[in-house]
From TrEMBL:
Cross-referenced CDD domains: CLECT (cd00037)
Residues making up the signal peptide according to the UniProt record: 1-19
InterPro entries for the chain: C-type_lectin-like, C-type_lectin-like/link_sf, CTDL_fold
SMART domains for this protein: CLECT
Gene3D superfamilies per record: Mannose-Binding Protein A, subunit A
UniProt keywords, alphabetically: Signal
Name of the protein this chain belongs to: C-type lectin domain-containing protein
Domain C-type lectin: 37-161
Species whose genome carries this gene: Polypedilum vanderplanki
Domain of life according to the entry: Eukaryota
Amino acid sequence: MKLILLFTLCFASSIQLEAQENHPFEHIGTYEASNDNSTKEYFYSGDIYASWMKAMELCELFGMKLLTFDDAKEDENFRKSFVSFFANREAFIYIGANTTQPGSRTEWNWINGEKINFDIKWGEKQPDESSKEEFCLTFDENDPLVYHDMGCKDVLPFVCKESWKIKNIKVKE
Ligand SMILES: *[C@@H]1O[C@H](CO)[C@@H](O)[C@H](O)[C@H]1NC(C)=O
Ligand SMILES: *[C@@H]1O[C@H](CO)[C@@H](O)[C@H](O)[C@H]1NC(C)=O
């Protein structure tokens, strides 16, 4: 009997999947999206701290993206699921969104250019635009995690995400 597996990975090539095994980031969890059967893998940068722009580049270097959420459900799941993981770690974590209007509660864009289309769960008194140049988005360690505006030059840990979908599996005997 011969088994042939044919599959197509939507967002990641097999080369990128191999690279994933070698990257220095810590796998913190998986999310299965029910609307399109895609799988999301989340990775924490751990001891690797970077500016927001550099964090974006580092995720891409390893075939991933700085963390974005496809919808409110994924956002909520992440903020609830990983509270204990982040509890004893660095307080702020970069994710893949920024703004051209610091201080705005709604005008934030994911790194793919799309506007965040759900209610952003800001931390207390956030966004506060305290330094007048808080163009980038972070999570603030809290229960659940909440959003906090931040300068983009701060050197912080970050979360990368890999998104993939097995489109078509055929098993041949
Ligand atoms: C998701 O997977 C289920 C079970 O494999 C299938 O029935 C459903 O059609 C899939 N949905 C999409 C949007 O691909
Ligand atoms: C916001 O992110 C985009 C990439 O998605 C980048 O081109 C732009 O320079 C960023 N803006 C700031 C203020 O960092």
